[in-house]
Specification:
single chain; two-stranded parallel ribbon; two-stranded antiparallel ribbon
């Protein structure tokens, strides 16, 4: 009966040179996410809706790349107990091509990168945070699709018609007919965290004056919305193996509570501040 479902057999490589070396979809997702985000930031500047000039966009993207990579990797290790592998594999922290990036850690890294860049270039921190909130959904969309291609972070066992059999979800050597189909939760998260939030933030940026007049509000709205859809997606996702729940919640859901608190604080702060002048065209 289970073989009536699609069996995941996608390669993580777009181009493969050796067993472990090649161009991976996971890395390509990051590259395209940053390139796409940079193009949107250029479009904002050209339209006169941003205080970040086009000439500084490449420098800003470089700062964000470092923030995402360092924060995401450290978050994966210290928020999800990846540090336990350091004893047997001291270089595991640096093997980013094998995956192991935490979005919550990436948010922290991005926040630090924005703070550094805002101080260096004397551009408002909250305004930059709003700009990043408006483009982050693109990176999340591509990253979750890459998770699906990699056959990782699969969902819970289900019998829905679109369920997928992930061979890696079962012990090695188990016959396919005995492997239970699961929710393709990576695609749910791609739709919710990625496509939905990207569309919402783009609508808020282009169709309202919130980014120009209430710095920090869009970033706060993004954090609250991300946390909400992340917690929804977690209900379909298999908890990470070997990780205990916290207060009955998965790690992803538990850490999202802090994002909600931070997002509400940013929204509250933006509402209490006088409306800022619109950037000059």
């Amino acid at each position: 009966m289970f073989l009536a479902y699609w069996v995941h057999n996608l390669s993580p490589f777009l181009v493969q040179f050796t067993d472990t070396i090649g161009i991976r979809y996971y890395g390509l997702a990051y590259l395209l996410g940053f390139v796409g985000g940079g193009l949107l930031l250029h479009a904002y500047a050209r339209a006169g809706r941003s205080r970040l000039p086009s000439a500084l966009v490449p420098d800003f993207i470089i700062a964000l790349v470092i923030g995402v990579m360092v924060g995401g990797r450290l978050g994966s290790f210290f928020l999800y107990e990846g540090w336990r592998t350091l004893g047997t594999d001291p270089l595991a922290l640096f093997k980013i091509w094998q995956g192991g990036m935490a979005s919550h850690g990436g948010f922290i890294g991005v926040a630090v990168a924005i703070a550094w860049f805002a101080h260096r270039q004397r551009i408002g921190y909250l305004h930059l945070a709003d700009l990043i909130a408006s483009v982050t959904g693109l990176g999340l969309l591509l990253g979750r699709i890459a998770n699906f291609i990699n056959g990782e972070l699969w969902g819970k066992v289900t019998d829905v018609p679109w369920a997928v059999i992930f061979p890696d979800s079962a012990p090695a050597g188990m016959p396919l007919e005995l492997i239970a189909p699961r929710h393709p939760s990576q695609l749910y998260e791609a739709a919710l965290e990625g496509a939905l939030l990207l569309a919402l933030m783009q609508w808020r940026f282009w169709r309202t004056e919130v980014a120009a007049r209430q710095p920090g509000r869009m970033a706060g709205e993004f954090l609250v919305a991300y946390a909400a859809v992340r917690m929804l997606g977690e209900t379909f996702r298999e908890p990470d193996a070997g990780l205990s729940l916290i207060l009955g919640l998965s790690r992803g859901s538990f850490y999202s509570i802090f994002l909600i608190g931070m997002g509400l604080l940013m929204i509250w702060r933006s509402l209490r501040q006088p409306a800022a002048p619109r950037p000059a065209a």
